[in-house]
Amino acid sequence: SPQEHEAMENMYKRYDHTSTLQETIQKSYKQVDDSVELAKADLNEKFLLLSEQMKLRQEELLNVIDELGQYKKQALKEQNEQMKSYRIQISDGKKQYEKLISDANLDIHKRKIEIMSMIQIIMNNKVPLSLVTQPEIKFLMPPKSISSFLTSLAIDNCDRPVPPVIILEKVTFDTMTVSWQTEFDEDVNVISNRRAA
User: Fold this and answer.
1) pLDDT tens-digit profile of 81-114?
2) Which one, of 11, 9, 51, 17, lies nearest residue 189 by Cα?
3) Which of 63, 104, 106, 148 is most buried as measured by Cβ atoms within 10 A of its Cβ?
4) Rounded CA separation 115/96 (Å)
5) 3-class SS string, the chain
């Protein structure tokens, strides 16, 4: 009967398909081995490159640390010199104050004006009265960013669904009929060879 004939034809097609697939599987063993070697070589190459870039970055950061250290020491040295000069200015102001206080012949109002003027000059000296830079340098390497980076390194097994076969079934002046089938559907080869009427 036509039904039996069609069923047998489908079964033979399935047999042909499995034969082709089996040949592909046999060839795939070597492809897998080759792919494993390529993936390992690529991984080793990338890690070597990463290691070299990390080494370069390490050198850059070590230089930054040295530069920061020199800058901080110089800034603190300059501030220390400013403090010495300022302390001398304050000491001189104390001596001037004691001299003005001990001068019995000096008019009290004039003495007050001189003392207040001298103190104002000292107090208005714009020297930094806190550390201009903190005597501390730290290397920042947040554990989360390391863990995120390491987790992002992965192996892709490259298993992707095969794109479906799209068939334009019918076109009219205002509609279009499209069908699709995947490799797992029957009669893929037949359908893929069909043409729109």
Assistant:
1) 999 999 999 999 999 999 988 988 888 899 899 9
2) 17
3) 106
4) 8
5) CHHHHHHHHHHHHHHHHHHHHHHHHHHHHHHHHHHHHHHHHHHHHHHHHHHHHHHHHHHHHHHHHHHHHHHHHHHHHHHHHHHHHHHHHHHHHHHHHHHHHHCCCCCHHHHHHHHHHHHHHHHCCCCCCCCCCCCCCCCCCCHHHHHHHHHHCCCCCCCCCCCCEEEEEEECCCCEEEEEECCCCCCHHHHHCCCCC
Exposure b/e, 124-143, CB count within 10 A at least 16 = b: eeeeeeeeeeeeeeeeeeee
Instruction: Render pLDDT for 122-168 as a digit per residue (tens, 0 to 9).
Output: 999 999 889 999 989 998 888 888 888 888 888 888 777 777 777 77
CB within 8 Å of 85: residues ≥ 6 apart: none
Q: Please report, as a single letter, which amino acid is at residue 113.
A: I
Tell me: pLDDT of 172 over 70.
yes
123 is written with which tokens? 């107090």
Centre a 10 Å sphere on the Cβ of residue 114 and count the other Cβ atoms it contains: 16
How far is Cα 65 from Cα 57, in angstroms, rounded to an integer? 12
| pLDDT for residue 185 | 53
* Integer Cα distance of 178 and 191 in angstroms: 12
Tokens of 5: 């004939």
